[in-house]
Amino acid sequence: MDREPHSGRAAESGPGPTGRNRPAVVVLCRPGNLHCLRELGAGMEEEGVPFRTEDATGGSAVELAFAAAQASNLDVGVGVDDAGSVCVHHAKLPPDMPALAGRAADARTLGHNAARLVVGIPFKDAPVRTGQ
Amino acid sequence: MSLVVGVDIGNSTTEACAAEIGEDGQVTYLSAALGRTSGVKGTTANVPGVVEVVRGALAAAGRDPADVQAVLVNEATPVISGLAMETITETIITESTMIGHNPDTPGGVGLGVGTTVAFAELPGCAPDDAVICVAGAGTDFEDVAAGINAATARGVRVAGAVVRADDANLIVNRLREPIPVVDEVTLVDRVPLGMPAAVEVAEQGRTIRTLSNSYGIATVFGLDPDQTRLIAPVARALVGNRSAVVVRTPAGDITDRRIAAGGLTLIGERAKRSVDMDAGAEEIMETLRRVQPLVDADGEPGTHVGGMLARVRDTMADLTAMPRDAVRIQDVLAVDTFVPQRVTGGLAGEFALENAVALAAMVRTSKGPMELLAARLREALGTEVLIGGVEADMALLGALTTPGTAKPVAILDLGGGSTDAAVAMEDAEVRSVHLAGAGDLVTSLIDSELGLESRELAEEIKKFPLAKAESFFHIRMEDGTVRFFDEPLPAEAFARVVVLADAGMQPIRTRHGVEKIRQVRRSAKRRVFVTNALRALEQVAPAGDIRRIGFLVVLGGAALDFEIPDMIAEAVSEFGIVSGTGNVRGCEGPRNAVATGLVARHASARATCAAVRCG
């Protein structure tokens, strides 16, 4: 792999505001969940929505996602907790009512859907998995 | 004073009207009630439904069922209607010539031409080869990008790519030189390899220019005029897409085939004519006009229409214990429609809009088991049950209680299975007609044209306005106004078109926009109800002249629809007649006409009796 797993191409390129002021979906993730982050990022990148990743200190996926949404100037955040739960939140929703929730295995779809929440197009269904 | 209840058993609803009748025939209406018809109209299965509405009406009036002197029931004759659809065109792609499914996010921009090669074979390509890379399931976007970059570095000209997963942008973002990439090709393994191919992706907000143009394809592949003529349908099929792939194979083609849909035989009083279903609705209706009045109809065995007509006949024969060949089809309505169908041979689940003809048919008998029904009702209710009055006459009497109406009056009853019309001229002569095609056909058209595969959802779309969920807290209605919510909307509704049904908001899981769904809904209603309203009025109007009808009262469930009455008013406005939704007794709206008519008829009959006794 010749790239950092958690850097979205769309967020890096082009002039304009930088760092925390840049419009982006914020992903708050407990350190170490690299595969999940890569898949989330891939989903958002495919939809063409910029994102940035920050390390989280603790909390549930819902709490992290809500905090991330508050920090995002696109009002959309993603939280990933130690247990592998992933949550997509919107800043205007009540804290305990996330837009979407799922498992790390669905991270690519959740990434797509976090981006779609910004773009305003209908969510994608998670691929059907067997043997669970 | 005597207490009576008029009961109208309809195809889908049973209505009751409770009233007091004085000695002089003076009627005091007390209440009305409405419930679902149990079973097929005019059969003993109706008893529970009738009992329920009679009790409902009496409860609403605060009267004791023991005081009821008579229950008046209309002469309800069973109506069976059927619907069938024949698809008459079919699109077939042979040898996987093209991919035109319009993924949400294709990658790169431009046109790439080369020979198709599997991703795994890329390292084996010679420098200067122009290739289109085909990556199957399970190939990661990083690997694909790295593989293409490596090949490009060796001098291989990778001009474009076709991939299975939704990762076109991910691949393109990692390439040193961007190329057009079409993704989400489900059956990517069937893309023919070693063939010349072209991949085109347009900029966002634009559509492809080269592959949707016959001469564009001819230029790309160096085709002669004869070959160009052959690929013209491919270009036509790709018009309007943002991305496309065309593969040049020896016999690759896309064809619009006409499917023989069988014939329909229409037997009139004087003539008998056959018409092919694939001739289209206009031709079928023209044939019907030529043989009218219709005595019977038959469809070719083995076709949908043939099966439907046989089913209608069987059901009616079972219900009325009539011999099967004594059951006659009284009317048919053909409507042109289109059905989104999966393209045969498509690689990415492409759909094409195929032409189809929908046909509604109805049979009606004069011989319902009414006496048996009346006897059962007598048992169940413990009161006298009187059968009386032809339905159309009763409906006219009831309709005339609408403020502002007078003879000559016509009624139009838009139901679920049939459209009924009747006209009463000053001389009390009543003419009535029952036509095939009503609400159920509209539902079918909406269902098939939008590819919903859910009659329930189609029914809701027919009945309720649309909106689009624009955020978690607001929706934009189809007229452009906005409605806000305190509670967040469900995630399934986000950014989707929803139908605002009574039971709540229901998301419509298609790619159609509000405008498209609205247009299909309105056009389905117009093609069925407006067509049938004019057809019915022409048949009952004196000498076929609609202008001689003074007042038109629209009744039945469809009269409560939020747009059908307006469409009908618009359609008949050119005839200079007064048209509107009925308001039976000035308070019931388009409901309860027959039940009210039964009471009115009973009262006037009593008054006549009383007068005779006095004199």
Strand order of the biggest β-sheet of chain A: 2-1-3-4-5
* Poorly predicted sequence stretches spanning 5 or more consecutive residues of chain B: none
Q: What integer value in Å does the Rg of chain B equal?
A: 31 Å
Which architecture of the domain at 97-251 in chain B does the CATH hierarchy give at level 2? 3-Layer(bba) Sandwich
Q: What structural category arises from helix and sheet content of chain B?
A: alpha+beta
Can you walk through the features of this model?
The complex is a heterodimer of chains A (132) and B (615). With 132 residues, chain A is α/β, with parallel strands linked by helices. Chain A is built from four helices and five strands. Chain A has helices spanning 9-12, 34-47, 61-71, 107-119, and strands spanning 25-29, 51-55, 76-80, 85-90, 100-103. In chain A, strands 2-1-3-4-5 form a five-stranded mixed β-sheet. In chain A, β3 (76-80) and β4 form a beta hairpin. In chain A, α2 (34-47) packs parallel to α4. Chain A is globular. With 615 residues, chain B is α+β, with helices and mostly antiparallel strands. Among the domains of chain B are: 1-77 and 368-401 and 602-615, ATPase, nucleotide binding domain (Nucleotidyltransferase, domain 5, 2-Layer Sandwich), CATH 3.30.420; 81-88 and 259-364, Coenzyme B12-Dependent Enzyme linker domain (Ribosomal Protein L22, Chain A, Alpha-Beta Complex), CATH 3.90.470; 97-251, Glucose Oxidase, domain 1, CATH 3.50.30.70. Chain B has a seven-stranded mixed β-sheet with strand order 7-13-12-8-9-10-11. In chain B, strands 3-2-1-4-20 form a five-stranded mixed β-sheet. The chains are: A alpha/beta (132), B alpha+beta (615). The A-B interface holds A 1-3, 9-10, 42, 45-48, 90, 92-94, 97, 99-100, 112, 116-117, 120-124 and B 104-105, 141-142, 146, 166-170, 173-174, 470-473, 488, 491-492, 494-496, 509. Chain A: This is PduH protein. Chain A: InterPro entries: B12-dep_deHydtase_bsu, Dehydtase/Dehydtase_re. Chain A: It comes from Planotetraspora mira.
